[in-house]
Design a protein that fits this description.
Immunoglobulin-like, 5-stranded antiparallel β-sheet, 2 domains, 4-stranded antiparallel β-sheet, alpha+beta, 326 residues, 17 strands, membrane
């Protein structure tokens, strides 16, 4: 209980001292004015024990007691310097953050560099409740990942990050607070069991002029429930492999139009976005060309990873007052 109260008080003091403002310019170098030092709960207990030992030595006039108290006190004071120097002149830069779906954990990458010819042990990064412990070798750079939970779609900023250490004895905590200019795009979570894709505007078995028919084998893709049984790669399945569907160069799938206005009005905004996300992913898996129509604009018919990323970004930022180009 006492530890929980101490941690809560420490967090409140941190929020008051280090109010989150504008992102820090990069690279961010930890200099003397950015590093703070305070005793840990173990350090406070150690100080109380030294005080009891000192009073006992004074009361009984114990010379060896004085020597032990001053020796242990000197070691404790020396640990302040070591903890402070363990953070001094570290350099931090934001790395890449790949988009994720709501409910998944966003991975924020931070590059931490040690320009000194000595190692830096016992370091920790803390943000959004995620903690990453690491150490740096001499003249080394480490890519530290913070895995933070996501709850809603849109841009998720990394915000306030704490780098800290209790090296070498755990009696002193040295820490610094930084706000890197880093964010992660969170897509809406796809609907778990969406209805089938809308029908395309062209025959899914139509043929491109100038191309061969079913004899022009183009490759394999994951099987979809709507695929024809005659296109299933039965030989692969018989060998114990996954169920795959053969693709042929002579076949062209119909263009699919995913339209916000065709969805049932009973669905709320988030439910509509989840269904459209599921359809976008299904169309991409089936290598089908599709367009996306939302109240704020239309994405032209296309296919491929770049087109999928553009559509998912529009769905993530829909209604947030932010353009998909932000």
């Amino acid at each position: 209980m006492a530890r929980q109260r101490f941690d809560s008080l420490r967090r409140q003091v941190d929020r008051w001292l280090f109010r989150v403002g504008r992102p820090d310019p990069t690279p961010l170098v930890l200099r003397q004015r950015r590093i703070f030092v305070l005793p840990t709960p173990a350090g406070l207990a150690f100080a109380a024990a030294l005080m009891v030992m000192l009073l006992t030595s004074i009361n009984y006039n114990l010379s060896l007691g004085y020597a032990l108290v001053f020796l242990l006190g000197g070691v404790a004071f020396a640990s302040i310097v070591h903890a402070f120097r363990n953070l001094l002149h570290l350099s931090l830069r934001p790395g890449r953050s790949e988009p994720v779906f709501a409910g998944e954990r966003a991975r924020f990458s931070i590059l931490v560099s040690n320009a000194r010819p000595t190692r830096r042990p016992g370091l920790r990064l803390n943000a959004h409740g995620a903690i990453a412990a690491f150490e740096l070798a001499a003249n080394d750079t480490a890519d530290i990942a913070l895995s933070c939970p996501t709850e809603r779609r849109g841009w998720m900023r990394l915000g306030r990050v704490v780098i800290e250490t209790t090296y070498p004895l755990g009696l002193i905590r040295a820490w610094s607070v930084l706000v890197p200019d880093q964010r992660c795009l969170v897509y809406p979570a796809p609907e778990p069991f969406p209805p089938p894709l809308p029908e395309g505007t062209a025959d899914s078995a139509g043929r491109r002029p100038g191309h061969a028919g079913d004899d022009d084998f183009a490759g394999l893709r994951p099987h979809q429930p709507s695929d024809s049984p005659r296109h299933v790669a039965w030989k692969t399945l018989a060998r114990g492999g996954p169920m795959l569907t053969k693709q042929f160069a002579g076949l062209v799938a119909g263009e699919i139009h995913l339209d916000w206005d065709t969805l049932p009005w009973a669905l709320g905004t988030d439910a509509r976005l989840s269904r459209l996300v599921a359809w976008v992913l299904a169309a991409e898996r089936g290598a089908q060309a599709y367009s996306l129509a939302l109240p704020d604009g239309i994405t032209a018919v296309d296919r491929g990873p770049q087109h999928t990323a553009t559509c998912l970004k529009r769905l993530a930022l829909f209604g947030n007052g932010a353009s998909a180009d932000v």
